[in-house]
């Protein structure tokens, strides 16, 4: 049977249009699958938003579960001889600091030579450092100019740096050898320019600068440091010595940071509450519900949050959130009474710390919140199980979509083959009809001619 390359050419029928209509009708079988898949994907995305809000709340709870949060301090310095930074290990107090000497590094220069590119000959430069270490730098004949010697020293990274200086004289080029660090331990105490180097390189003792250590007093106590960065002269404080002179460092408890941590917890919960409302609430005005409305996992999350926030924590003066000025509002959000929290932070910091951290027992509110959220967010937890089930459903719908698509393709291919056969059959019938018509016409003409 002849093959028709384009449907309808032989028969004159609009078979391509008919096939397109049949294809559209078949493809509608995919629409419910795509719609159902999109709904499950939207739920997975919604759980992602919920997970993000829960994680933010957990971060705020974890901060309050750390006793260091309640030891926050801030520092202020008067005077310009030092700058300072403090950690939570620093006890509050006032410190009088007097810098009498800043640390410096040692250095010495060579006598000048006329040409910095002239090779001086093979040899070795040996440096002795204040801590007893030595550094040997070998120089070969073909690479023994001042620039070559400089590069060879610097490539060693052995505690000594070399630089080329031009002093503008008739023999202007000098090498300056400097210790990498300040202080006597890092000092370059000796430079041996051994035989070789053409005798053209020698030290200029007039340029020698001796290393020295920093010297300061803190509340009258003498302190010496190899560098101008002084750590733990005061517990938990790093001092940077900027000039000689006196300064006063004040370390005070940072009540603002402590209250900020409590407010972060409240803000994290309120943000979580807003997310839960948008995902699972119902809008009476529009008559629409959130994508997770009625979801059992969300109901479990809400129930566990109510239990942990409304429960008793610790066994001290504070046992519930309202004791420290955090109260539940009609709309389900939390609100901070700043005056109450100010008083608690200023006068009962130990009790506040115990309320959130639980002290030695570890039975504080922040720890309970953190543990509750961990069961929701950890691998294999509440949200992981929920999204895993949804993902498996999406995978199943993908497989169903693929099977349906294959069936549709097979059906359309069968339609196309049938239409092609129909087109060929009609073409043959038309051809036969035309032939027979011609024959009948010829017979009639012959009969009429004989009569």
Notable characteristics:
alpha+beta, 451 residues, 4-stranded antiparallel beta sheet
Overall pLDDT:
89
Q: Sheet bearing the most strands, described?
A: 5 strands, antiparallel
Quickly count the helices: 9
**What is the helix/strand order?**
HHEEEEEEHEEEEEEEEEHEEHEEHHHH
C-alpha termini separation: 42 Å
What is the helix content? 40-55%
Global geometry: flat
Task: Please state the structural category.
Answer: alpha+beta
What is the radius of gyration computed over CA atoms, rounded to a whole number of angstroms?
44 Å
Poorly predicted runs: none
Task: Quote the beta fraction.
Answer: 15-25%
Q: Give the total of beta strands.
A: 19
Explained architecture:
- The model has no long low-confidence stretch (mean pLDDT 89).
- A hairpin with a 5-residue loop joins strand 18 and strand 19.
- It is built from 9 helices and 19 strands.
- The strands form 6 sheets. The protein has a 5-stranded antiparallel sheet with strand order 1-15-3-11-12, with no helix packed on it.
- With 451 residues, it is of the alpha+beta class.
Task: Summarize this entry quickly.
The chain is α+β, with helices and mostly antiparallel strands and 451 residues long. It is 44% helix and 22% strand.
């Amino acid at each position: 049977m002849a093959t028709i390359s384009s449907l309808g050419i032989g028969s004159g029928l609009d078979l391509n249009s008919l096939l397109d209509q049949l294809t559209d009708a078949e493809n509608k079988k995919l629409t419910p699958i795509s719609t159902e898949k999109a709904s499950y994907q939207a739920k997975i995305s919604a759980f992602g938003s919920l997970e993000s809000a829960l994680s933010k709340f957990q971060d705020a709870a974890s901060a309050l579960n750390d006793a260091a949060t309640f030891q926050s301090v801030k520092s202020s310095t008067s005077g310009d001889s030092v700058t300072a930074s403090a950690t939570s290990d620093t006890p509050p107090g006032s410190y009088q600091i007097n810098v009498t000497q800043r640390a410096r590094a040692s250095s010495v220069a060579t006598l000048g030579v006329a040409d910095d590119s002239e090779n001086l000959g093979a040899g070795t430069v040996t440096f002795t450092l204040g801590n007893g270490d030595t550094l040997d730098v070998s120089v070969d004949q073909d690479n023994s100019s001042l620039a070559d010697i400089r590069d060879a020293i610097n490539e060693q990274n052995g505690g000594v740096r070399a630089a080329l200086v031009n002093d503008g004289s008739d023999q202007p080029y000098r090498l300056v050898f400097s210790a990498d660090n300040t202080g006597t331990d890092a000092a370059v105490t000796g430079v041996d320019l051994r035989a070789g180097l053409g005798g053209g390189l020698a030290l200029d003792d007039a340029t020698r600068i001796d290393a020295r250590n920093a010297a300061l007093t803190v509340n009258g106590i003498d302190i010496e440091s190899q560098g101008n960065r002084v750590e733990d002269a005061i517990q938990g404080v790093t001092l940077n010595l900027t000039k000689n002179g006196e300064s006063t460092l004040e370390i005070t408890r940072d009540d603002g940071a402590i209250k900020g941590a409590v407010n972060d917890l409240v803000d994290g919960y309120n943000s979580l509450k807003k997310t839960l409302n948008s995902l699972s609430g119902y809008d009476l005005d529009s008559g629409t519900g959130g994508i997770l409305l009625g979801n059992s996992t969300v109901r479990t999350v809400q129930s566990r949050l109510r239990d942990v926030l409304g429960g008793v924590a610790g066994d001290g003066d504070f046992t519930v959130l309202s004791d420290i000025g955090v109260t539940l509002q009609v709309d389900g959000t939390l609100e901070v009474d700043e005056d109450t929290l100010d008083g608690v932070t200023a006068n009962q910091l130990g009790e506040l710390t115990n309320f959130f951290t639980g002290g030695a027992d570890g039975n504080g509110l922040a720890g309970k919140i953190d543990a509750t959220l961990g069961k929701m967010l950890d691998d294999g937890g509440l949200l992981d199980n929920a999204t895993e089930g949804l993902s498996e459903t999406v995978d199943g719908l993908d497989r169903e979509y693929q099977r349906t698509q294959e069936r549709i393709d097979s059906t359309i291919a069968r339609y196309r083959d049938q239409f092609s056969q129909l087109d060929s059959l009609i073409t043959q019938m038309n051809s036969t009809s035309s032939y027979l018509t011609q024959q009948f016409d010829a017979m009639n003409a012959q009969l009429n001619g004989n009569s």
